[in-house]
């Protein structure tokens, strides 16, 4: 009635249970990437000059402003002839130059002309050569013993672009970088640096990536 006795019961009692499938790991939420806050950028207009400050340090010239006529950068000192203007530049083929008053009262290189013949130093850039210009650096150093350097740097173009940068440098024998300019697809981007580097001319140039210049000493590039 009950059938023959089963011989597989010991096996069934002692067999291993199949392993339980582990639940999939819970997804790990990655923290949201912090958004970089970019400094606002303004474009210059003929009827509205822009003032570049640490809060808003950048302005962009249009293609017309960047490519027609010439660009003029002038340092207006509160005291005449208080300091010198020093210019470093890099061309599109990565050749670098430095123009200083030690070269000549009127020094030229690759479409640039640094003029120290008056009390107000200035740089003239022939924008006909804008395609070969990669970037510029504008720096100042005291004319004589250390003194406060106060005034304003103005950058203007034939096409109507105009930007102003306040200058207030504490007494120091070293170099202070006022501004940098970059050629970005035919448009010049002006950035106020307000950077009292305080070291030698060589230090200032190397701090801004002008490291292809041969130096006679820490203050004099080799011509």
Automatic annotation (TrEMBL):
It comes from the Bacteria. Residues 1-51 are annotated as: Disordered. This is Uncharacterized protein. It comes from Actinoplanes philippinensis.
């Amino acid at each position: 009635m009950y059938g023959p006795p089963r011989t597989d019961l010991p096996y069934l009692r002692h067999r291993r249970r199949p392993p339980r499938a582990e639940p999939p790991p819970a997804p790990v939420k990655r923290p949201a990437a912090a958004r970089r806050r970019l400094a606002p950028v303004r474009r210059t207009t003929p009827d509205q000059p822009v003032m570049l400050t640490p809060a808003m340090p950048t302005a962009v010239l249009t293609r017309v402003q960047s490519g027609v006529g010439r660009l003029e950068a002038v340092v207006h000192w509160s005291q005449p002839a208080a300091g010198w203007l020093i210019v470093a530049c890099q061309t599109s083929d990565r050749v670098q130059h430095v123009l200083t008053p030690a070269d000549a009262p009127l020094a030229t290189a690759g479409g640039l002309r640094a003029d120290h013949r008056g009390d107000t130093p200035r740089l003239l850039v022939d924008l006909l050569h804008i395609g070969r210009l990669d970037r510029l650096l504008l720096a100042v150093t005291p004319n004589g013993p250390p003194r406060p350097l106060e005034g304003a740097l103005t950058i203007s173009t034939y096409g109507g672009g105009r930007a102003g940068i306040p200058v207030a440098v504490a007494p120091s024998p070293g170099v202070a970088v006022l501004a940098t300019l970059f050629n970005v697809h035919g448009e010049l981007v002006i950035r106020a640096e307000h950077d009292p580097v305080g070291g030698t001319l060589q230090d200032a140039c190397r701090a801004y990536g002008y490291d292809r210049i041969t130096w006679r000493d820490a203050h004099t590039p080799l011509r």
